[in-house]
């Protein structure tokens, strides 16, 4: 996805059920997210001041949720950067393929839950920023992603 832009990434309001005993938010395949969820993983015990991410994916769609606490997600399409503060367990940030992302400012005890459209594949990652810029600038390559 060489041509995607940070403006293709949006905050999605999730289903929220409030009962006196606490709240529940629900994410259902292809209903609440525009992809089929094949994997869920979560980041936790992130040390203060630590940064995560610093990579892009060629095909992977993700919904990033601050299941607990807060953190910032900075998205970059090679031209424009946008930073989102995630601090509500009933909101998810949809990140489309072809976007460089960095996560930082994790609050103590925060949990970053990621719903992903594909199983883990290391060759879907671009981990070098210059390589990412080259990838985004070669829009007319015959590769589909
Ligand atoms: P990575 O995606 O680079 O972490 P982050 O972007 O959150 O900083 O993954 C960190 C390590 O965990 C890396 O060695 C690969 C491994 N990993 C898996 O084995 N399976 C997975 O589903 C994920 C997300 C990571």
Order of helices and strands: EEEEEEEEEEEEH
Oligomer: single chain
Bound ligands, named by name, code or SMILES: thymidine-5'-diphosphate
| Net shape | globular
Please outline the major beta sheet: 5 strands, antiparallel
Instruction: Please give the count of helices.
Output: 1
What percentage of the residues does DSSP assign to strands (E)? 35-45%
Topology (SSEs and partners):
Layout: E1 10-13, E2 15-19, E3 22-26, E4 39-43, E5 52-57, E6 62-68, E7 71-76, E8 81-86, E9 91-95, E10 100-104, E11 111-116, E12 125-126, H1 129-137
Antiparallel strand pairs: 1-9, 2-3, 4-11, 5-10, 5-12, 6-9, 6-11, 7-8, 7-10
Bound molecules: thymidine-5'-diphosphate.
Q: What does this entry look like structurally?
A:
Strands 1-9-6-11-4 form a 5-stranded antiparallel sheet, with no helix packed on it. The chain has a 5-stranded antiparallel sheet with strand order 8-7-10-5-12. The chain is mainly beta and 145 residues long. The chain is built from 1 helix and 12 strands; from the N terminus they run E-E-E-E-E-E-E-E-E-E-E-E-H. A hairpin with a 4-residue loop joins strand 7 and strand 8. The chain has one helix at 129-137; strands spanning 10-13, 15-19, 22-26, 39-43, 52-57, 62-68, 71-76, 81-86, 91-95, 100-104, 111-116, 125-126. It binds thymidine-5'-diphosphate.
